[in-house]
């Protein structure tokens, strides 16, 4: 159940404000909750997002993990090959108390 809650949270964070207006969070959670198997959830993500979007999504999760491990923002940006601003955004969200499950 914890993994499902985590997956729901991650998916909601990955959806743009525009997309939130099109599909309500309740509808989205209903869809995600049906995808309880790991492979089914992966298929759902692959169906919803482009390869580029999934790469970006994966990078953001990796950024959070590395920040929590104590790596510097510049080191993370260099390792993942993203801008320091992208890493800084993750750091500021952690300071707000988000991403406790990662």
Describe this structure in words.
The chain is mainly alpha-helical and 102 residues long. 77% of the residues lie in helices and 0% in strands. The chain has 7 helices and no strands. It has helices at residues 2-14, 17-22, 25-34, 38-48, 51-69, 73-80, 84-95. The two termini are 15 Å apart.
Helical amount among residues, as a percent range? over 70%
Strand content: under 5%
Please state the CA-atom Rg, rounded to the nearest Å: 14 Å
Mean pLDDT: 78
Short summary of the structure?
The protein is mainly α.
List keywords for this structure.
single chain, 102 residues, mainly alpha
Topology (elements, then pairings):
Layout lengths: L1 H13 L2 H6 L2 H10 L3 H11 L2 H19 L3 H8 L3 H12 L7
Helix pairs in contact: 1-3, 5-6, 5-7, 6-7
């Amino acid at each position: 159940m914890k993994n499902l809650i985590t997956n729901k949270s991650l998916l909601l964070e990955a959806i743009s404000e525009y997309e939130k207006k099109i599909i309500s969070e309740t509808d989205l959670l209903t869809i995600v909750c049906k995808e309880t198997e790991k492979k089914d959830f992966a298929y759902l993500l692959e169906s919803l997002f482009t390869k580029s979007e999934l790469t970006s999504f994966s990078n953001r999760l990796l950024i959070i993990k590395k920040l929590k491990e104590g790596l510097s923002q510049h080191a993370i940006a260099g390792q993942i090959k993203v801008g320091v601003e992208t890493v800084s955004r993750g750091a500021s969200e952690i300071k707000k108390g988000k991403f406790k499950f990662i």
